[in-house]
């Protein structure tokens, strides 16, 4: 009698990081500009230098918050996996989700975060079906940073990895969108990312340090213009990106 196939192992750490950091991952991020489209429409961003400043400001504020919440979600998911008990995971993640939503004043950004989180979990279920149990235990709707944390734990990545991936996504998404929005040299935008690398490493370390602290003490930095841009974008007549 034929035996059922054994579950495939999770990707290696390097492969998992490449998978999650790939902008072609069908999790919806490529359809967003992270507020850059509206910033350009309002004249806040015009040049490569402006893009560099935009990216730096983003990762040092909401990027740190997102990275810390991703690390916290990874930590809680990893502990549940180590204990072999996923029954309480959803309740813990829902608490984190409420804390993150409380740090997101814009309703538009909250919806975008939920949509992208849902898409990431859906994509991971299809790509790595062996991890369906932990993804299902996390719950159907999570803000994107929390979804990254859960997926990171499911793929054997640690809290620092989860924070790093989220921070890279926070910078790369608008950097790639800038090429279409400003018809700017793609080498110039990727130079911005390369020059930002030391900041990304330092902020990822800081974010990972919050992985196991009380959820009420997680970072609460704000970027008011991002919230304003997100709300303005919902009523903008001509849009290339969803956000």
Write the layout of secondary structure elements.
Blueprint: H1 13-21, H2 36-41, H3 48-83, H4 89-102, H5 107-127, H6 132-138, H7 144-154, H8 159-182, H9 186-208, H10 224-233
Main location: cytoplasm
Protein name: Urease accessory protein UreF
Family: Belongs to the UreF family.
- Would you tell me which CATH topology applies? Urease accessory protein UreF
- The span between the termini is 53 Å
CATH superfamily: Urease accessory protein UreF
Low-pLDDT stretches: 1-7
Number of strands: 0
- Work out the radius of gyration: 18 Å
Q: Residue share in helices?
A: 55-70%
Number of helices: 10
Please state the structural category: mainly alpha
How big a fraction of the residues is strand? under 5%
CATH class: Mainly Alpha
Secondary-structure element sequence?
A: HHHHHHHHHH
Subunit structure: UreD, UreF and UreG form a complex that acts as a GTP-hydrolysis-dependent molecular chaperone, activating the urease apoprotein by helping to assemble the nickel containing metallocenter of UreC. The UreE protein probably delivers the nickel.
InterPro entries: UreF, UreF_sf
Protein name: Urease accessory protein UreF
Organism: Brachybacterium faecium (strain ATCC 43885 / DSM 4810 / JCM 11609 / LMG 19847 / NBRC 14762 / NCIMB 9860 / 6-10)
Please characterize this protein's 3D structure.
The longest helix has 36 residues, at 48-83. The chain has 243 residues and is an all-alpha fold. The protein has a single domain (35-233), classed as Orthogonal Bundle (Urease accessory protein UreF), CATH 1.10.4190. The chain has helices at residues 13-21, 36-41, 48-83, 89-102, 107-127, 132-138, 144-154, 159-182, 186-208, 224-233. The radius of gyration is 18 Å and the shape is globular.
């Amino acid at each position: 009698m034929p035996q059922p196939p054994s579950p495939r192992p999770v990707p290696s750490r390097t492969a998992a990081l490449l998978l999650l950091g790939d902008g072609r991952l069908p999790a919806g991020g490529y359809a967003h500009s992270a507020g850059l489209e509206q910033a350009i429409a309002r004249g806040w961003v015009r040049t490569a230098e402006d893009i560099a400043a935009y990216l730096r400001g983003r990762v040092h504020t909401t990027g740190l918050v997102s990275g810390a919440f991703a690390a916290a979600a990874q930590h809680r998911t990893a502990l549940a996996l180590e204990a072999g008990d996923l029954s309480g995971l959803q309740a813990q993640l829902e608490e984190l989700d409420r804390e993150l939503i409380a740090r997101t004043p814009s309703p538009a950004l909250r919806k975008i975060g939920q949509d992208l989180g849902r898409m990431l979990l859906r994509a991971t279920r299809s790509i790595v079906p062996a991890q369906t149990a932990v993804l299902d235990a996390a719950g159907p709707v999570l803000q994107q940073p929390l979804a990254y944390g859960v997926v990171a734990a499911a793929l054997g990545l640690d809290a620092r990895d989860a924070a790093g991936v989220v921070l890279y996504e926070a910078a790369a998404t608008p950097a790639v969108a800038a090429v279409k929005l400003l018809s700017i040299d793609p080498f110039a935008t990727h130079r911005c990312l390369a020059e930002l690398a030391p900041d990304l490493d330092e902020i990822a370390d800081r974010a990972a340090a919050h992985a196991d602290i009380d959820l009420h003490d997680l970072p609460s930095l704000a970027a008011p213009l991002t919230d304003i841009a997100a709300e303005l974008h919902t009523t903008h007549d001509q849009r290339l990106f969803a956000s």
